[in-house]
Amino acid sequence: QVQLVESGGGLVQTGGSLRLSCAASGSIFRVNAMGWYRQAPGKQRELVAGITSRGTTNYADSVKGRFTISRDNAKNTVILLMNSLKPEDTAVYYCNADIWKYGGSRDGYWGQGTQVTVSS
Predict the structure, then answer these.
(1) Each residue of 3-54: pLDDT tens digit?
(2) CA–CA gap between residue 111 and residue 23 (Å, rounded)
(3) Angle at 43 between CA 16 and CA 46, to 5 degrees
(4) CA distance 23 to 113
């Protein structure tokens, strides 16, 4: 009933930029917090950036000053603008959303993942 669809991943050189987008759709009453996570091969999934329903943001120390998270509540969409990319940023990026459904339930949902590769 609820799905998150991501787009915007790709291959860039060190210092380049990418813009990731994630749109939630389905039987949604309210989208609460949203965020971006990433997982590199052999690594644990880690939080990259999060944003509350009111627009308060937080970032992992490794991306502060380089990445910007934002949201468009009318479109149930969360954006991650990634600048000054480094090889260490290479990973599969997943969006996440905490959602109230019309049926009365609340749960977290994951996007399908999008590959970001930064070449040196």
Answers:
(1) 999 999 999 999 999 999 999 999 999 999 999 999 999 999 999 999 999 9
(2) 9
(3) 70
(4) 12
Instruction: Say how far apart CA 28 and CA 101 lie, in whole Å.
Output: 5
- As given in the structure block, the two tokens for residue 17 are 């930029």
Burial-class residue 98 by CB neighbours within 10 Å (0-12, 13-18, 19+). middle
Q: Which residues contact 19 (CB under 8 A, 6 or more apart)?
A: 8, 79, 80, 81, 82
The answer to whether the CB of 117 falls within 8 A of the CB of 12 is yes
Question: 89: closest CA among 119, 46, 118, 47?
Answer: 118
Strand partners, 112: none
Contact 36, 80 (CB under 8 A): yes
CA distances from 21 to 5, 33, 80, 98, 108 (A): 8, 15, 7, 16, 18
CA 14 from centre of chain: 20
